[in-house]
Amino acid sequence: MSLRQRLVGAVTAVTVLTLGGAFTAVSVTVNRAQERRLDRALHTQASEEAADVAARGAGAIEDRPGPAANDVGPLPKYGAVYSEGGAVLAATASLGASAPALATVRRPLRAPFDHWLRRDHLRAVLVRVPDGSGRLVLLAASRADLDGDERFLRRAMLQVFVVAVAWTILVATWFVRRLTRDHEVITRVVRRVAAGDLTARVASRSDDRELAQVGGDIDEMVARLEVLVDSQQRFIAHAAHELRSPLTTLLGELSHALRRARDAEAYRAAIEEALGAARRLNQLANDLLSLARLGAEVERPAVTVSLSEVIRAAAAEVAPQAAAIGVTVAPGGAEGAVAGQPSDLQRLVRNLLDNAVRHSSRGDAVRVSARTLGDTVELRVADEGPGVPAEERARIFEPFYRVARDEADDAGSGLGLAIAREIARSHGGELSLAPDDPAAPGACFVLRLPRAPNLTDS
Ligand SMILES: Nc1ncnc2c1ncn2[C@@H]1O[C@H](COP(=O)(O)OP(=O)(O)O)[C@@H](O)[C@H]1O
Ligand SMILES: [Mg+2]
């Protein structure tokens, strides 16, 4: 059962109980009051009839009009006089020969009671004739008026009751619908999102502050989900695209080499090409794995890492490549220690150094240094290359993004800086590109990490 149905049901049930109770009480009270009035009239007249019988014998029961218990006038009267033994001594014409046997109307004296005589419903009372003869007078009046009033009241109240309940259901339904309109919108949106429609929004205009807040939060959550799913899809498309080109080279070289017999030199050249493509594939697979691992990072125990050690190891890794193109990597002052993963931090610095070396020309220098500033450790990698064009600065940290001029160069896939930034963030820090400085052309990447607690360079 929906919330709406339950609310309408509850309001209706309360109305039915309250109205039903009130109407029953009114009907019982009114009927009782009328009955008491009739009883009083019956009583008075029965006493007078009995006194008459005592004074004048048994024949006087006809003379008097019936008891007047309503506003219309005297009621038809039924009366009979019984001997002590139960024989009918006299009866009104209304009873005629069919006066009831005393045994059937034998009740406590002076206590009014209901009695069915053929098809007439009567209110009756039995009194003693006050002459010591033991005779009894039965006086009865028709209940038809009383019963009619009771039926009328019951019918009228039933009609009011039905109308009131129908009205309550209508009003409650309208009101509950209004009240739960915003819940309904939220439910619909959540269902659509669950079914995969990320364009659904609550766009709440609710007057209820809390509901409006919930609606706003849901919209924000869905918007974030949309961005996330979108970027994941773009990531997968990029990854597939990047995997394809070395794979195409690899397959092309191998099938070309097999097409006909060649000399050793030609095979060697083909294998070298294939090996190059396989290396790029390997590199790409490693980078993708690193990103996936960093994205799903489980807390690993952090160790204190000396930045001078990290810089030394990373510089050693890029040294052969730097030497090959005549670039010097110059570690400057390097003090500072952070808490984290040594291999990740080394990879971060290596990615920065690798970029710097690749964008340098013969004779240029790449400078790398670290220092502690209060609670932060700052590491800088600066080169003398062409720098990053202003309009692309914001995007170079995106996975697969490469500055237009470097797109043809197949040494990288555009994941290096994305990985570096992820590592920085997983260490509670940030990696950014320093603003352009006309005095120092080239790119300068700045890594800021929280200083290892209570430790300096170790
Ligand atoms: N030191 C740098 N000097 C100039 N451009 C750089 C430098 N480092 C990175 N970039 C630009 O940022 C892009 C993204 O870098 P990265 O994520 O490491 O990818 P990749 O090195 O595989 O191209 C590079 O393609 C390059 O255009
Ligand atoms: Mg790179």
Could you explain the architecture of this structure?
With 458 residues, the chain is of the alpha+beta class. It folds into three domains: 3-164; 209-293, Helix Hairpins, CATH 1.10.287.130; 301-450, Heat Shock Protein 90 (2-Layer Sandwich). It has nine helices and twelve strands. The protein has a five-stranded antiparallel sheet. Strand 3 and strand 4 (120-128) form a beta hairpin. Helix 5 (209-259) runs antiparallel to helix 6 (264-295) and helix 6 (264-295) runs parallel beside helix 9 (416-426). The longest helix is centred in the first third of the chain and has 54 residues, at 3-56. The model has no long low-confidence stretch (mean pLDDT 89). The protein binds adenosine-5'-diphosphate and magnesium ion. The site of magnesium ion has 5 residues, from helix 8.
